[in-house]
Amino acid sequence: MQLATLPRFPLATTPTPLQRVETFELALGNDSPAIYIKRDDLTGLAFGGNKARKLEYLVADALAVGATALISEGAVQSNHARMTAAAAAVAGLRCALVLDARHGTDVKGNLLLDHLLGAEVHIVPDDAARAETMEAVAAGLRESGEMPYVIPTGGSVPLGAASYVAATLELLQQLNEVEEAPRRLYHATGSLGTQAGLVVGARAFSAPYAVYGVAVSHPREALIAKGISLANETAALLDLDAEFTADDVVIDGGFVGERYGVATEGGLEAIRLLARTEGILLDPVYSGKAMAALIDHIRSGDLSHADTVAFLHTGGGPSLFAFGTALL
Fold this sequence. Notes:
By secondary structure, this protein is α/β, with parallel strands linked by helices. The chain is built from 11 helices and 10 strands. The strands form 2 sheets. Strands 1-2-10-7-8-9 form a 6-stranded mixed β-sheet, sandwiched between helices. Strands 5-4-3-6 form a 4-stranded parallel β-sheet, with helices on both faces. Strand 4, helix 4 (109-116) and strand 5 form a beta-alpha-beta unit. The longest helix is centred in the middle third of the chain and has 20 residues, at 158-177.
């Protein structure tokens, strides 16, 4: 496998901790499994999160081709956009972000940080308008003598997904140290880069757990199709002889709520409970919804005291400041 040969630009503080949350377990009752949280919210770059790992590979590639600017897209409270701006600053590159205003344009949370990090921010009315604006921004940069490097939503391309193949090996080493073999690895899934990497990594390194994605947007079927394609493309990039199907890309679509970016009561409860038992902060858009699924599975009896589960905390803390009224 060609993983070790991929160039990386140092951005993430790794390995991130693997933390058992016993007070949280007690709050969930006697039937709670042992729960270990992989703290990728602590990757260090601009409040941390899973995108730091992906950007290490993507920024290295951008520099290798002579890029002078990074361009990416997302919602106004995009964690990926915030971390792309931070990565550009560290690498000495310009950054342009195209963000949609479906959930407002108040300069707080991630949007505040985008500006603070020096990104050139372009606001469009909805996600449908992002692609056209991205092309226009890239053209403008080229006309001014810059060489832009375009990063799709979430950094969810094979090169970005490869970072979570590497992260799988890190997690398995930590699980071996605590002598645990979880039944599932829960995580929030949106643009599928993290899940594709985890799925490929689980196959490559014979992980004991099932990778269990919790969708943050509709429709589930489209997410699964994208996950299959991206997992296979990532395996090909790494010269790994493996083929992935719908059986490998497990996604639970039952915790999205109304739509992407809209908090759910289950997600808000999960945020409050973990904060008040462990001092760990989830977010309403991603990790809160994934933790709501784990809690529901404990309460419904799908998970029991005999099990061990792992949870990948993908970050997103700054978006809490855009949901203050709902949280309290």
